[in-house]
Amino acid sequence: MQARLVAMEEGKEPSLPISNQPRAFPRSLRFCSVILGLGIVFTVFSIFMSRHFSFENVVIPATSSKIHLCFQQSNDFQSWIRPPLNVWHRMSDAQLLWRASFDPQIKSYPFERVPKIAFMFLTRGPLPMAPLWERFFKGHEQMYSIYIHALPTYNETYPPFSPFYQRQIPSKVTEWGMMSMCNAERRLLANALLDMSNEWFILLSEACIPLQSFPAVYLYISNSRLSFMEIYDDPGPCGRGRYNHNMEPVVNLTNWRKGSQWFEIDRKLAVDIIKDDTYYPKFEQFCRPACYVDEHYFQTMLSIRSPQLLANRTLTWVDWSQGGPHPTTYTKADVTKEFFTKIAKKQTCTYNNQPSKACLFFARKFAPETLDTLLEHSLEYFGY
Q1: How far is CA 78 from the centre of its chain?
Q2: What is the pLDDT of residue 191?
Q3: Which tens digit of pLDDT belongs to each residue from 214-230?
């Protein structure tokens, strides 16, 4: 104290004592400051780059291929023409029909295309005739595709080497004689239309069998100028007698047609069926049992819209001679060489405006018990 007083008397300010621990800036605050600074620099740099450069089409070269960045949208030509890898999807019926209605208007395809036949099986569950069909399809893998509409509760069990493996489409319950049956057929057509290579579409049941070899079927269908759907005017109670006058004026009695459910049509008619919103509401509302809409809807609608494209006959043999609401079911005792020769002799039709005896290529209904006999004699009976 005395020293301080002496210093003040001499006009000098005494120096304060110096601490041994300097007041350093806290280490955690310094670290946060560095991170914050880097963040600001990175943000400014990102904004600058996004304004002056586009990364939408950036690709990273690899040794064997080009690897697209995960945010790049595939817009190459192959993505438009490549068929779906899996027939299973999550689309609703409305979304599926809308998507399938897209069809090229230029029919000269700018890529190599092998036109295929879409074989569409409408079934409740398994296909008991699958081994026979597998023999029929063998060796022609690039010329066909398969679609199966079964009950939603059925899970297919075909082995990976089978052409039926994973070919079951998303399905809904169908009722005999109801519009749900036509909905299932439209669903099959729509799924098949997603593959741009499918040019012809054949509707079959689990009880159908092929009467001729695949090359014979393909040649006949691909060279035909017309599609094959049975259509005729039945003036009786099971024809015009099912007509409902509430369908006027969209469908008049003079337009009313009947025919077999089982058909073969080309791509144009397939698109016409799945995009129809003119005749569908009338048939859904006014063609109910005992109208049996699957015998009238497509037949009437197509005969109004495109009669010049139809042969007015089916390619599938069915025996209605016993009467009743269902055709004859053939058993093991029926499937003899004489039986199929008899079917062949009954054939007479017109093909490309010329008389022909080659008219039928499929037949139904065959019970599962006939499979072994059919497999044993398929080469002798059918040529495959």
Answers
A1: 18
A2: 98
A3: 999 999 999 999 999 99
Cα–chain center distance at 351: 30
Residue 199 in 3-state DSSP?
strand
Q: pLDDT tens digit string along 71-121?
A: 345 568 887 788 887 899 999 999 999 999 998 889 888 988 999 999 999
13: its two tokens: 């300010």
What lies within 8 Å, CB to CB, of 353 at 6+ separation is none
Q: Largest alpha-carbon pair distance within the chain?
A: 144
φ and ψ at residue 337, rounded to 5 degrees: -60, -40
Cβ neighbours of residue 348 under 8 Å, at least 6 residues apart? Answer: 355, 356, 357, 359
The residue to which tokens 């060279």 are assigned: 223
Q: Of the candidates 292, 294, 297, 308, which has an alpha carbon nearest to the alpha carbon of residue 256?
A: 297
Contacts for 242 with CB less than 8 Å, ≥ 6 apart: 256, 258, 287, 290, 291, 292, 296
Rg (CA), the chain: 36
Query: What's the token pair of residue 195?
Result: 């593959």
Inter-residue contact 244 to 283 (CB < 8 Å): no
| Calpha distance 258→281 (Å, rounded) | 18
Mean pLDDT (the chain, rounded) = 86
pLDDT digits (tens, 9 = 90+) for 261-314: 999 999 999 999 999 999 999 999 999 988 999 999 999 999 999 999 999 999
CA distance 112 to 77: 13
DSSP state of 117: E
H or E segment to which residue 351 belongs: strand 349-351
Q: Which neighbouring-strand residues pair with 266?
A: 200
